[in-house]
Amino acid sequence: MILVRRSLLAVLCACAAAVSLGGPAQAAYPERPIRFILSHPPGGSADVIARLMQPKLEKILGQPVIIENRAGAGGVIAMDALSKAKPDGYTIGLGASGGLATAVALGETVPYDPVKAFAPVACVSGQPFMLAVPGASPLKTINDVIEAEKRGNSKLTIGHGGAIMHLTAALFNYATGLKIPLVTYKGTGPVVTDLLGAHVPLGIIDIPSAEAALASGKVRALAISSSGRFEGLPDVPTFQEAGLKDFEAVGFLGVVAPAGVPAAELATLNKAFATVLRDPEVLARFKSFGSRPMMTDPKEFGDYIASEIRKWTAVVDAANLRQKSQ
Which of 76, 128, 213, 257 could share a disulfide with 226, CB 3.0–4.6 Å? Predict the structure, then answer.
């Protein structure tokens, strides 16, 4: 009987100790697989980057990271699904400029507020664009383009692959005060093809699509849209260096979670992605896609999304690109 009483007393003491320490210790996050929604189809550069990061994230977090491609509507489908997920840190998404910024700026119908619906985790990468000309073009600089258009007989047009490159071309007109007609192509590849054949005088293109054409000299880059020169094209000036103050246009990829995810879980995820983005294999692959790491903390990424919406809204309004209500 004495033994029973002592055993009961030991149990009660253990319970009391647990209560005094704030209750039973909770399992460290994460304790089960993480669902990773992508706003891009399989095989594209964003999908390849995500799958490159996947095993490295799994090793760091100690749990499977399950990729789910939900492409369509410029990234809006994936981001809408993410916004409705439980905010427990076990569903995250890789979004891009379209679904997180430019769709709103263009006035498209988006079933979420990209600032309020998500908890930013980290910006992952940014891909700049180039203003390019055929190799034999007499236009050598941004100033040459401006002067040719101002003379009024240049017949210039700017070809682009749509989406963020369309807005980059519009930003160029906005920043220079020009009204060069914009020509939309079905992707960047056809723009490069027409630059090679001198069928279009100017093009806004990405680096991977034009790598061979640039190397051969058959296409020439006049300026790059990042804030600093790109490592792979050290001789190409930025638009800012060419005299267009504050000109920056980057197609970004970033990780977000549903709004309401606890700060501790966001910090764990941010740290994991920061570690992955220091991996030499990841850095080399980013470079091959014409991208560069843009690692941020959650607050910095949230501020960046908001600033991108403001910037592109101003460009869209100035260029009268806003979608008309149905």
Answer: 128
